[in-house]
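Message: Study each token:
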Amino acid sequence: MRKFRLPTFVFLTIFFGIVQFLNISIFGVKPNFVLTALVVFSFFISDFWEGFFLSAMGAFLLKFSSEPQKEIFAVFVIGMVFSAINKYLPWRPLVGNVIILACSTLIYYAVSYPFAIWSLVFAKELVYNLILGTVLFLILNHLNFKKK
């Protein structure tokens, strides 16, 4: 499965971008599917350029406009940063995934909607992102999409 890793991640990034575009909400809150997928993929990619490509594609899928927005830039930067640092984390990959997902959601809200961090919406989205990310991580790990 390792040779299909990048094409699979490209397909999944496009899929999650479409799902995000459809505004699917769970009890009135939309999970950040693309951000969650990029963070999870960062545990399985081994090349900086793969992380760059997936982060850029995820940001492009979220909103293509002539004017950059801080939310889209935040998704791109978060994807890039966590792709670069996850190999230095002292925890097991699953624990690191949960911690990085929580941090990425917090950072995204701090940059995009700092006033909403103390809201129930943030708490719900955090829980949804953690559940979605953990399930996706376990599936990819089970399918042996580990780094080279």
Summary: Residues 2-142 form one domain. The chain has one domain: 2-142. The two ends are 11 Å apart (CA to CA).
